[in-house]
Amino acid sequence: xxxxxxxxxxxxxxxxxxxxxxxxxxxxxxxxxxxxxxxxxxxxxxxxxxxxxxxxxxxxxxxxxxxxxxxxxxxxxxxxxxxxxxxxxxxxxxxxxxxxxxxxxxxxxxxxxxxxxxxxxxxxxxxxxxx
Length: 131
Prior knowledge:
- By secondary structure, the chain is of the alpha+beta class.
- It has a single domain (5-122), classed as 2-Layer Sandwich (Nucleotidyltransferase, domain 5).
- 51% of the residues lie in helices and 19% in strands.
- It is built from four helices and four strands.
- The protein is globular.
- 23% of the residues are buried.
- The model has no long low-confidence stretch (mean pLDDT 90).
């Protein structure tokens, strides 16, 4: 969850693979919640996974605390279970993948948040297979 954009991804019906969905340009909390509510309804979402930007040592920094606060708002206002998932280095991984695909900076900027969301969700889905 960035300050300007929120990358979105969704899993297949079996919960095996993540696909990038879109990128939500943030406006204010009310508009963000309204847009998320519509996406949740349209895709019949049962659970929400939010990337948690932990510090490299695993502690919660300022940005992670903002995400935790946002997760509280999501749970309260949208009424869906929300899981937080370690997102350390996912944006860097997404950038590296897009660079390897030789995308221009302009094109990378448009898709990096969505790809990072897909990587976060796939990591979460993969962890559930191990259980």
